TrEMBL record:
UniProt-recorded name of the protein: peptidyl-tRNA hydrolase
SUPFAM superfamilies, per database record: Peptidyl-tRNA hydrolase-like
Organism: Nepenthes gracilis
The protein's Enzyme Commission number: 3.1.1.29
Family: Belongs to the PTH family.
Length: 269
């Protein structure tokens, strides 16, 4: 075969590869790209915000591709606040932990990694990377975990969701807000302090109700739930899971409409 024929054959092979491959790689004679399952590729995703792999260079003799590379979704950090230790398990002050556990179980995310003074796991909600975290400091020092974690992964505060208990909300009621103060919640106070005073991050509040009679609020938040409360709370966690999915996939406004609407119970029927 003549040199010209070889050059023409290689050019046509390259053009054919570019039509059939989602991401084009320069070919020598034929396109050989190993197949990777979607599950494996998702697990191999890089959660850092460092730059992607070097740009691919097209053959000088071929026409440049006009296909634009899809924008890679940026990761979210979702943090549930609570107290570590068995004696706090199932208490009102730990509903943030339980909400994160609900998300992890539903999305198949393992929470067995310990770093930044937290239990955390990495995974996806559809194609959006998510980091779930449960700080293992005491509640009042939660910022010591959340602040460094958000900084290390370079996650903007608008994509850091805090989930925690709120005595000012009726029991099992959810409220999603784009920003705000700590409202007397010491865990949130600590997080805001470690965000250098910034309050511009979303938060999902879970209502635990007010203490009965003259009961000390400190003792109240450390009490467990009765059977009826547990059933209502489990339903609230289901709604919270849907809210987080909508938040990551469709944006804050749609999620807030779902969470804060008076019709949310009817929608889930």
């Amino acid at each position: 075969m003549s040199p010209c024929a070889i050059s023409w054959s290689m050019s046509m092979s390259t053009m054919n590869c570019r039509r059939t491959c989602r991401f084009w790689f320069p070919c020598r004679s034929i396109c050989k790209i190993p197949k990777i399952s979607s599950y494996s590729s998702r697990r191999m995703a890089n959660f850092s915000t460092s730059s992607a792999s070097p740009a691919l260079v097209a053959d000088a003799d071929s026409t440049p591709s006009t296909d634009a590379t899809p924008t890679k979704p940026k990761p979210w950090l979702v943090v549930g606040l609570g107290n570590p230790g068995r004696k706090y398990t199932g208490t009102r002050h730990n509903v943030g932990f339980e909400m994160v556990d609900t998300i992890a179980e539903a999305e198949g995310i393992s929470m067995n990694t310990v770093s930044f003074k937290a239990l955390f796991g990495k995974g996806f909600i559809r194609n959006v990377p998510i980091i779930l975290a449960k700080p293992q400091t005491l509640m009042n020092a939660s910022g010591e975990s959340v602040g460094p974690m958000a900084s290390y992964y370079k996650i903007p505060l608008k994509q850091v969701l805090l989930i925690y208990d709120d005595m000012d909300l009726p029991f099992a009621k959810l409220r999603l807000l784009p920003k705000g103060g700590h409202g007397g919640h010491n865990g949130m106070r600590s997080v805001i302090d470690h965000f250098k005073g910034s309050r511009d991050f979303p938060r999902l509040k879970i209502g635990i109700g007010r203490p009965p009679g003259k009961m000390d609020p400190v003792n109240f938040v450390l009490h467990a739930f009765n059977k009826q409360e547990r059933e209502e709370l489990d339903f609230a966690f289901h709604r919270g899971l849907e809210a987080v999915r909508i938040l990551l996939l469709e944006g804050f406004n749609k999620s807030a409409t779902f969470v804060n609407s008076a019709k949310q119970l009817e929608e889930l029927g």
